[in-house]
Amino acid sequence: MPEEQKSIPEVLSELWELLVSYGKQETIEPLKGIGRFVGYGLAAAIVGSTGIVLLTLAGLRALQDHNDGHLTGNWNWVPYLAALVLLAILVTIAVSRIKPKGAKEKASR
Predict the structure, then answer these.
(1) What are the start-end ranges of the H helices in 4-109?
(2) Which residues does the chain have with pLDDT short of 50?
(3) 82-91, long-range: CB within 8 Å, 24+ apart, which pairs?
(4) Distance (Å, rounded) from C-alpha 29 to C-alpha 23?
(5) CA distance 58 to 63
């Protein structure tokens, strides 16, 4: 037996409910996953960068304290330059590791 025909307001009401549920499914749920991903990434970036800065400062302090007086006077800038070079190397390595999504697939072809 065929179903009863629905009136236009009933069809529009069902269509609206379908569109709202589809919109929630395709927007809100993926955004929750992205928020979690961004949160963990942000926490890792903060912890990692804090660690790198503290290790660089430790190296700078070691160069300043344990140089037997060789880097004094006009040479007191050398430990700062060494720390800056170390940070530049670390930034270069980090930036060189950034690849667009799917870069491995294209490179292997």
Answers:
(1) 8-65, 78-96, 103-108
(2) none
(3) 83/56, 83/57, 83/59, 86/56, 86/59, 87/52, 87/56, 90/52
(4) 10
(5) 9
pTM of the model: 0.61
Note the pLDDT of residue 1: 52
Spatial distance between the Cα atoms of 59 and 83, rounded to a whole number of angstroms: 7
Which run of H or of E encompasses 6?
A: none
CB 79 within 8 A of CB 86: no
Token pair listed for 81? 């330059």
Map tokens 């799917």 to a residue. Answer: 102
Q: How far is CA 27 from the centre of its chain?
A: 21
State residue 30's pLDDT score.
84
